[in-house]
């Protein structure tokens, strides 16, 4: 089983009261680095291999990818890019991944990606032991 996990970077970073607003770029880098473990080890209900895409926008656009986590910079709305990634995956080659999971707490985005068959998890899902 292979899973694609698409992370709404702005939403996940914004859910953590750790002073991220003082350094949005640095907060996105820290999130990217935390996602490496998800790519390598998976999560309790998502075993590896896991492909992780971190969608960033605004001040976080310059965050580079690392081998384990692809960073996708949204030219405008991060939500629109996430929906595009989900729809491209589901229409181009739905057999590539057994599941597509979007990590966000944004209600509107949740509904948009569910229409395309994506599963949705909240930000705390990423910090499960």
**Number of helical regions:** 4
Beta strand %: 15-25%
User: How is the main sheet built?
Assistant: 5 strands, parallel
Shape: globular
Structural class by SSE content:
alpha/beta
H and E string: EHHEEHEHE
How are strands sequenced across the largest beta sheet? 3-2-1-4-5
Specify Rg, calculated over alpha carbons: 13 Å
Tally the beta strands. Answer: 5
Beginning-to-end CA distance, first to last residue: 21 Å
Mean pLDDT, nearest integer? 89
* Poorly predicted ranges: none
* Helix coverage percent: 25-40%
Oligomer: single chain
Q: Could you describe the 3D structure shown?
A:
The protein is globular and about 40 Å long. The protein is built from 4 helices and 5 strands, in the order βααββαβαβ. Strand 4, helix 4 and strand 5 form a beta-alpha-beta unit. The chain is α/β, with parallel strands linked by helices and 129 residues long. 36% of the residues lie in helices and 20% in strands.
List keywords for this structure.
129 residues, alpha/beta
Structure summarized in a few sentences:
The protein is an alpha/beta fold and 129 residues long.
Give the arrangement of secondary structure elements:
Layout: E1 3-8, H1 9-14, H2 24-41, E2 50-56, E3 69-73, H3 78-92, E4 99-103, H4 107-114, E5 119-121
Parallel strand pairs: 1-2, 1-4, 2-3, 4-5
